[in-house]
Amino acid sequence: MKEITLTLLTGNDREQFILDNQCAFKYGAMEEFGERDSHFEEDGEIISRKTIENSIDQGVAYRIREDGRIVGGLVLQINEKTHHNHLDLLFVSPNAHSKGIGTAAWKCVESLYPETKAWETCTPYFEKRNIHFYVNKCGFHIVEFFNSLHPDPRDPETGNAADFENGGEMFRFEKVVNLKTRI
């Protein structure tokens, strides 16, 4: 089996990280909706540059590597006081899907942050691969569904109270960590 590692994002790789993230998210939407998709935030992107940049600036970003080769990335928000942490972004390059890379990367995350009491993340309602990954591979549970009847109280770009945007339907996942739930 190939070795999956995480390395901290460097400044000179930031632009490529953003582009790789947008490519991976766009691939998922195109796979689900094809050319008719209307879920793009800006300039034909599922996730805006601003959202990614804010996440990187406020969190800890890593590149996912397979035998040293970049195959994805992730961004975490680590709360040293409460140990309730947030996975902002996790992506694997489309040409590296279905090889166990995401699951191995998540195991690395849990090893890096063993003091974590709970993890949280969100994914769009249409990302069936992501829902399967978080629930069936990583042990998360769906705890909330944001939609027009139950809007997300936080704007992903600002962290402030959000107005529901058309098409902003998202699942929120949690993983309460103890010895029995670690993967």
Can you characterise this structure?
The protein is an alpha+beta fold and 183 residues long. Helix content is 28%, strand content 27%. The chain is built from 4 helices and 7 strands; from the N terminus they run βααβββαβαββ. It has helices spanning 14-33, 49-58, 101-112, 128-137, and strands at 4-8, 60-66, 69-77, 84-92, 118-124, 141-146, 170-176. Strands 1-2-3-4-5-7-6 form a 7-stranded mixed β-sheet, with helices on both faces. The longest helix has 20 residues, at 14-33. It is globular. It starts with a strand and ends in a 7-residue tail after the last strand.
Which SSEs are present, and which pair or pack?
Elements: E1 4-8, H1 14-33, H2 49-58, E2 60-66, E3 69-77, E4 84-92, H3 101-112, E5 118-124, H4 128-137, E6 141-146, E7 170-176
Parallel strand pairs: 4-5
Antiparallel strand pairs: 1-2, 2-3, 3-4, 5-7, 6-7
Overview in brief:
By secondary structure, the protein is α+β, with helices and mostly antiparallel strands. It has four helices and seven strands; from the N terminus they run βααβββαβαββ. A hairpin with a 2-residue loop joins strand 2 and strand 3.
